[in-house]
Amino acid sequence: MSNQGKIHSVNEWYQEFLENRLIPPRRAHDFELGTPEGFAVILDEIQLNGAQPGCPYYLQVYFFDTRIRQFFGRPYRTRAVPAFEGVIRFNEELFFHCSILGEEVFLVFELIEVSPKDPSDQMTVGWTIQIINSHQQALQEYSTNRRNLQKTRLRLYPGTPKALVYTSNIEKETQAMTGAIQCTLLVHSKLLSCSDFIEEFAIIGGMDDVPGLDEFENAPQLASPHLLPPIPTFLDDVTISFGQHGDSIEKGLLDSINVDRLYRENFLPGKEPIPQMHVLERRLRVGVHNGFSFLGNPLVVHLSNWEPQEPGNPHSMRRRSKSPSRRTSRVDPSSILYVPTKISIPKVVADSRLAIVFALDYLMGIRGNDGSIQFTQSVLLCWGAWKPFGNEKFESGHQSVMVPLVGGPRPNPEETLCFKSLIRIFRNDHSNLPAASPQVVLNFNFYTGDEKPTIPREPRRGEKPSVSRPKSEPITEEIIPSKSRKDSPKKHQNELFEDEGFEEHLPTIKSPTSPNFHQISFDKQIDKVIDRSFIQSPRNDQEKDFVVMPGVAKGATVPRSIHSLLLRKEFPQILDRNGEIPESVEPTGGKLNEVIEKNDPLDTNEIVVQLMAFKWLNRFAHLSGGRKVFFTFQFYRFPQVTTERLLIDGESASEPGLLKRLNQQDQLLIDDGFGFMVRLTVDRSSLSPSDPLEFVKFLDENPLQIDAWDADSLQLIGTIDLSLKCLLRNGLESVQSLVQCQIIQRALPEAPKTTGLLFVRLACIGHPSSNQIDLVESKNPAIVSKRLQKLSEPGESFKIRVRPLNPAHENALQRFLYAQRLDISQRYAEAFDSNNLENLEQQEKLKGNYDFTNSKNEKMVRKFVFDTELEAYKKLRNESKAGRLLHTLFKGITTEHRIYSSIGESIFFEFLLHNTFPEPINCSVDIEEPGLRIISNADDWAFYKKVHNLETPLEKDFIRTGQNGQTTIFLKPKEALYVPFLYEDLKSSNHTDGQITQTKAIFKRFPSLEPLSILHLTIEHRPYILHKSMRFFGEEHSNLSKIIRLRGFEGKPRPILMKCSDPTVKVALRNSGVEQDLCLTAFCGQSCTSKQFLVLFYADSHAYRQIGVWQISIHSFSHFEIKGILSQTTHFTLEMKKSTTERQLIHFYPSSPQIFPSVSQPMLMNAEETKISMEFRPESTGNELQMLTAVDTSTRELLGGWMVHAKTTQPQITKQFEIKIPLSCRKELHKKLPIHNPYGVPRIFRITSSRPELVKIGDEMLQMASGVSTTASLIFLPIVQKAISIEVLIFIQNVDTGQPEETYSLKLSYVNV
Question: Which helix (H) or strand (E) holds 427?
Answer without folding.
Answer: none
